[in-house]
Amino acid sequence: MRILLIEDDRKAARLLARGLQEEGFVVDVVHTAEEGDEEAFVIAYDLIVLDWMLPGKDGLTLCRDLRQRGCKTPVLMLTARDALGDRVAGLNNGADDYLTKPFAFDELLARVRALLRRSEIMRPVVLALADLSLDPQSQRVMRGGQVLDLTHKEFAILQILMRHAGEVVSRSRLAEQVWKDDLIAIDNLIDVHIGNLRRKVDAPPAAPLIHTVRGRGFRLAPPDDGHA
To 5 degrees, how large is the angle CA 181–CA 182–CA 184? Predict the structure, then answer.
């Protein structure tokens, strides 16, 4: 499970990150809303832990902006503001849970795990778009009733595109999630794998579902989508 921690107090961020890492989570730490905004749309996180009081744009505004742009990642809001109106504002602007400072790490950990469990329960078992389906557990992909034989990398790319259907997925996001740290000549590799994936998923006479958005990345969309 990968968590994005957005906290401007560097000491507090180090302590929280260390505690979560000791529990087995992968934790990325940033200290401003602008950095958090960029990270949230480059990497598919399982959870965002977000401090309300950030320099410049605050956490409440960032949470609202993320939701308006289609980010569905669970958000746990951290703040010293404990008035009822503040808690309501946090939840109304897209936070999934709210924890007031100071707090015990055990309580934060319990809330993190509860949000992650809820996210897993709500996540569809089989991903589907038009006549294309992908089963993450069996790693079976079908289009028009026919099973598609995909490589490991092709499956990983398609799963990311399907989890973010309708959104533009950048090359940097694919590089981070599919190739991890192996970023040598990554643009060429991505183009080769996308080309191979298209030949299998969008083989004639099927209508194309995988679209290139020039200068931005790739998008999975149904044939009748006006943006395709």
Answer: 130
